[in-house]
């Protein structure tokens, strides 16, 4: 009985804590600004599935594309999209803007 | 100008190749040209609507609206290609006979013309919406407008030309091999599109990756190269496929093959039964 009571208190508490931890841990953000990716090299954690925000601050639409990550997503002007990446093996993954191939960048997946 | 031409060429190429294969595969079906043309027209309209609503679509389904829309579009194309191929496995022989014996009247039954319209619509809509957005961006950007518009038009023309050349090439295949070759092409095309859809659903977090890089052949044949691009469109080549993409590819391939074979078996047993009846009364 006591155990069940403790569980009833502890479980929501644990969820609240993990929720807090998630909220405190910001999503990795890739910014498109002035026809450049910022940062050019984005470090991500290998081995986990994570959300990545691609934010376009330019007045032109972009298409974030990567053959290495097999991702292809349209990012309209002055807006942002969220995509899932991973779990990735440690390594380097190229990406580019399909509407302006001079814009290139790399995701670097590293173990903790 | 050249960069613009290349981007527009790549956008148009995928739709052009799909249309060429579908148009070739439906050879001999009366009225196929009209249905495909209607599909192109409706696809262009749909592409413009998708391009205008791009920002709204992106923000739906917690930012995954576009990936889900893309996956839906691709999977509906896979369904239509499947229907087309299964139908052709039952009627292809009759159509081949008609191609070689001019004037022979062949009863073709229910035709997959609606499938032709949807496949074309979907191919034009998906690739076209990106092309429209891109051209819109150029128009809004100002600067060397005229050059870039010229490049864009040149790219579109080149893409259509390659599609046309493939179509003409297909027509040169002798009638008795024609439908088996085009049905193999459609089979691989459909499997590739299904794998692409799986990629989008994984991107939206709706499907697991089942291993992100099952193998990596980007050093042997890069997907950025022209050959890699062609193979990606035609047979679904991916240099670094994920597990879920492989599952969708193989699953689609086997499903279509099985449906085609079962159609053929049913037809053959029917033919045998019809031939057998007079034998019994003898």
From TrEMBL, chain A:
What are the boundaries of the signal sequence? 1-23
Domain (EfeO-type cupredoxin-like) ranges? 14-109
For whether the record's keyword set contains Thylakoid, the answer is no
> Per its UniProt record, what Gene3D superfamilies does this chain match?
Cupredoxins - blue copper proteins
- Mind telling me which InterPro entries this protein's record contains? Cupredoxin, EfeO_Cupredoxin
Q: Tell me the Pfam families matching this sequence.
A: Cupredoxin_1
Supply the name of the protein: EfeO-type cupredoxin-like domain-containing protein
From TrEMBL, chain B:
Q: Where in the cell is it found?
A: Membrane
Query: For this UniProt entry, which segments traverse the membrane?
Result: 6-23, 35-55, 67-88, 113-139, 145-166, 178-201, 242-260
Which source organism? Sulfuriferula plumbiphila
Q: Iron among the record's keywords?
A: no
- Quick check: keyword Transmembrane in the entry? yes
In terms of InterPro entries, this protein maps to: FTR1/Fip1/EfeU
List keywords of the entry alphabetically: Membrane, Transmembrane, Transmembrane helix
Annotated membrane topology? Multi-pass membrane protein
Question: Got a GO cellular component term for this one?
Answer: high-affinity iron permease complex
* Molecular-function GO terms, alphabetical: ferrous iron transmembrane transporter activity
Q: Which family does it belong to?
A: Belongs to the oxidase-dependent Fe transporter (OFeT) (TC 9.A.10.1) family.
Q: What is this protein called?
A: Transport-related membrane protein
Taxon lineage: Bacteria, Pseudomonadati, Pseudomonadota, Betaproteobacteria, Nitrosomonadales
């Amino acid at each position: 009985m006591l155990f069940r009571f403790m569980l009833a208190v502890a479980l929501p508490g644990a969820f609240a804590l993990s929720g807090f931890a998630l909220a405190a841990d910001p999503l990795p953000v890739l910014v498109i600004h002035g026809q450049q990716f910022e940062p050019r090299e984005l470090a991500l954690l290998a081995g986990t599935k994570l959300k990545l925000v691609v934010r376009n601050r330019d007045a032109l639409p972009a298409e974030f594309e990567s053959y290495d990550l097999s991702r292809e997503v349209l990012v309209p002007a002055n807006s942002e999209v969220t995509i899932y990446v991973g779990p990735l093996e440690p390594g380097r993954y190229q990406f580019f803007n399909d509407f302006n191939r001079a814009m290139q960048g790399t995701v670097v997946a590293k173990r903790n | 100008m050249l960069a613009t031409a290349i981007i527009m060429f790549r956008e148009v190429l995928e739709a052009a190749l799909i249309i060429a294969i579908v148009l070739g595969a439906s050879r001999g079906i009366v009225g196929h040209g009209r249905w495909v043309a209607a599909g192109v027209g409706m696809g262009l309209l749909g592409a413009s609507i998708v391009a205008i609503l791009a920002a709204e679509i992106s923000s739906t389904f917690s930012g995954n609206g576009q990936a889900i829309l893309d996956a839906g579009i691709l999977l509906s194309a896979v369904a239509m290609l499947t229907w087309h191929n299964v139908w052709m496995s039952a009627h292809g022989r009759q159509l081949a006979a008609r191609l070689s014996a001019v004037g022979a009247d062949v009863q073709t039954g229910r035709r997959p013309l609606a499938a032709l319209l949807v496949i074309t619509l979907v191919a034009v809509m998906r690739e076209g919406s990106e092309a429209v957005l891109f051209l819109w961006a150029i128009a809004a950007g100002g600067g060397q407008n005229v050059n870039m518009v010229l490049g864009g038009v040149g790219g579109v023309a080149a893409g259509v030309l390659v599609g046309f050349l493939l179509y003409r090439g297909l027509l040169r295949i002798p009638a008795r091999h024609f439908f088996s070759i085009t049905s193999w092409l459609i089979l691989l095309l459909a499997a590739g599109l299904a794998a692409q859809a799986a990629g989008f659903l994984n991107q939206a977090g709706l499907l697991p990756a089942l291993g992100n890089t099952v193998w990596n052949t980007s050093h042997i044949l890069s997907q950025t190269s022209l050959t890699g691009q062609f193979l990606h469109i035609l047979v679904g080549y991916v240099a670094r496929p994920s597990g879920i993409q492989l599952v969708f590819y193989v699953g689609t391939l086997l499903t279509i093959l099985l449906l085609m074979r079962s159609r053929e078996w049913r037809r053959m047993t029917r033919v045998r039964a019809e031939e057998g009846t007079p034998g019994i009364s003898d």
